[in-house]
Amino acid sequence: MTLLKIKKLPHSADLPLPKYETSGSAGMDLLAAIDEDLVIKPGEVKLVKTGISIALEEGFEAQVRPRSGLALKNGITVLNSPGTVDSDYRGEVCAILINHSQVDFTITRGMRIAQVVIAACIQAQIVEVEELDETQRGSGGFGSTGTK
């Protein structure tokens, strides 16, 4: 387990902190910290503030991900999914949302708009080489392993 420090920003003073809804939850819901309703039209992208800043221990990241219910029922998803919040970032956590549906979608203050998952991440040691080891797949790209 890692420590997640959360700072509420002034525009979210009345909103609750993110929390795990169940003991088995991988993510915590992020709330819209907006002053007035925000409409996302079909195909439109909006940056939505959550009203929090976080501090993670080094070696961890926060991943901003879609909420499955919003995606299934409303076509709303996180555009850069997952959006990465680095351990050294101290600005406001935001969600880049896109409306993939055919109708306007309205976000209201305090609405659960995305989720955040805390994950360990490893920085690789970079080594330049002349050749890479051979594998069965080789350089086969998208779809090269088939669907069955």
Mean pLDDT: 96
Tell me the radius of gyration.
19 Å
Helix and strand composition category: mainly beta
Q: What is the general shape? A: globular
Straight-line N-to-C gap = 37 Å
Main pleated-sheet profile: 4 strands, antiparallel
> Beta fraction of the residues?
35-45%
Summarize the helix and strand pattern as letters.
Answer: EEEEEHEEEEE
Strand order of the largest sheet: 1-4-8-6
Give a count of the beta strands, DSSP E runs of length 2 or more.
10
Count every helix, treating DSSP H or I runs of 4 or more residues as helices: 1
Helix content: under 10%
Protein described:
This protein has a 4-stranded antiparallel β-sheet. A 4-stranded antiparallel β-sheet has the order 2-10-5-7, with no helix packed on it. A two-stranded antiparallel sheet has the order 3-9. It has one helix at residues 68-74, and strands at 4-8, 27-31, 38-40, 45-56, 60-65, 76-78, 83-85, 92-99, 105-107, 112-120. The longest helix has 7 residues, at 68-74. The protein is built from 1 helix and 10 strands, in the order E-E-E-E-E-H-E-E-E-E-E. Helix content is 5%, strand content 39%. It is mainly beta. It starts with a strand and ends in a 28-residue tail after the last strand. The protein is globular and about 55 Å long.
Q: How would you summarize this macromolecular structure in one to three sentences?
A:
This protein has 148 residues and is mainly β. The chain contains 1 helix and 10 strands, in the order βββββαβββββ. The radius of gyration is 19 Å and the shape is globular.
